[in-house]
């Protein structure tokens, strides 16, 4: 007994073919969207790869690009088949390929599910890469004369200005590194010598932050230096001061940006999966409706379409039996070889 | 003798009507483009109206929006007329309006050209508006507690960061005004009292700039305070220091931004004017070729289309005569009642 059978007359078949053709074109547009989202994500990762120590994984955007192209191709082919389905001569040349095509679509749907899962799971990897990359970035901020790192200062300044953040977890991260290059420190000065000697590693540490941490929304001019010293500035209490510099850490800011991007892409891929499944079901109905015409010569006759030829359980057991016979044939062939040897 | 006459048979007429219909749809798109450019320019002016002292003239964007709307509507009408032109019945109802429509189109084209010229000329008043607005903006930088001006600091900081500029003409403009609010100055301190006493207006002036003037590309951390004092910083010479703060003034930066936008809009409006002129010419040919059918009943007959019925000189003298007779008609009307009542 077929699974979910539906009766079709000519009018119903024509309507199904037309509706399905339109749906396939929507799916092509969805495929193009996935492709462009993949490219956009790749560009965003490249733009800030310095913040991630050039270590970021491009797996998700590459997969999205591939999946987008595949979706476009498969859906364009499906649309062409639908367009030709109402003309028996044209449809007959597509008929033999349909079974393979539907199997391909099934496999493609599984791939889409995998991509969607990755979009949500790879966020952890992005978080870890960002944490490591940002701590290196803060350490290399002062190396404006080292080839390969000379733009780190500019990149980090622009990131802090753009994302409204300061430091890795908060602004105190800047107190733990030397972010002024030695070239601009007067080593003969007592103050400098004291600071450098005050810690084990001989770093010039201070309770100051770079200018890019400043919040333009603050009512007073930015206080960058002596942040923890209340008496150094008039009417200033560093415990209650909120608007002076950005209080958010760049790790949190960048991660929330990338995670919202990846989540939206994941949701869109789920939507594309639903669309693809509907396409597949429609095509299966159309092909079975055209194959089971009571009188093949009369296009206006009735026919029946279904999703599966037998029930779900029977189809499943059929598949298993097929796989077993396939395996047994291999074993028998393997067994023949020793006979040939003897 | 007609100006630029062209012979038409049915096939040529059909082709002409189809091409002109197609061009009218491009012209509709062009009208939509002009409308959106006007809207975009208006939004950009509004975004930064605080920096122009809320005094900026919205004449040009409003004119662009109006032109865009008019262009859309007359091009849609023209497209409809072209579509109907091949059916004599439908075309008969449009025929009487066409002459007025074409005159209106010519007038509209002239207006479009004027708009394009304005786009290039409006740069000059904008320069003055910007200069004054920025000067006031810098003066109100410290007034973060005055209602109506409390966001000036943020707006100015964000603008200096975005446009990579500092001050009005250059960074020294910040040396001439007090940009630290009195609320954050310790008036009991000797240093503060000295600075305030050192000038007539009693302002706290210093050779420092706000943080938004800092250039992130500088290899050294930003030097904002005591900028003209070489000894205050190690290995620093303010005469040769190039990368520390932005060198460009904000008036120049904003003017080049808006000027570039207006130049692009002006160039696009000129292109739209050329497109409109060509569709007007096409419509005139369609109109004249359909009006001059050798045999009015037979749609397949030959006909002649032209740009002007007589030559340029004759058309011009005709128009002058018409205007004179219209003027005389008005004078005669005024004269008659006066004569009647007097006598």
From TrEMBL, chain A:
GO terms for cellular component: plasma membrane. This is Peripherin-2. Belongs to the PRPH2/ROM1 family. InterPro entries: Peripherin/rom-1, Peripherin/rom-1_CS, Peripherin_LEL, Tetraspanin/Peripherin, Tetraspanin_EC2_sf. It comes from the Eukaryota. Keywords: Cell adhesion, Disulfide bond, Glycoprotein, Membrane, Transmembrane, Transmembrane helix. PANTHER family: PERIPHERIN-2 (PTHR19282:SF202), TETRASPANIN (PTHR19282). The chain crosses the membrane at residues 21-43, 63-81, 101-124, 255-275. The keyword Glycoprotein applies. Pfam families: Tetraspanin. It is a multi-pass membrane protein. One of its GO terms (biological process) is visual perception. Gene3D superfamilies: Tetraspanin. It is found in: Membrane.
TrEMBL record, chain B:
Keywords: Cell adhesion, Disulfide bond, Glycoprotein, Membrane, Transmembrane, Transmembrane helix. It comes from the Eukaryota. This is Peripherin-2. The keyword Kinase does not apply. It is a multi-pass membrane protein. The keyword Transmembrane helix applies. It comes from Maylandia zebra. Belongs to the PRPH2/ROM1 family. It holds the Pfam family Tetraspanin. InterPro entries: Peripherin/rom-1, Peripherin/rom-1_CS, Peripherin_LEL, Tetraspanin/Peripherin, Tetraspanin_EC2_sf. The chain crosses the membrane at residues 20-41, 62-81, 101-121, 255-275. PROSITE patterns: RDS_ROM1. It is found in: Membrane. One of its GO terms (biological process) is cell adhesion. The lineage of its organism: Eukaryota, Metazoa, Chordata, Craniata, Vertebrata. GO terms for cellular component: plasma membrane.
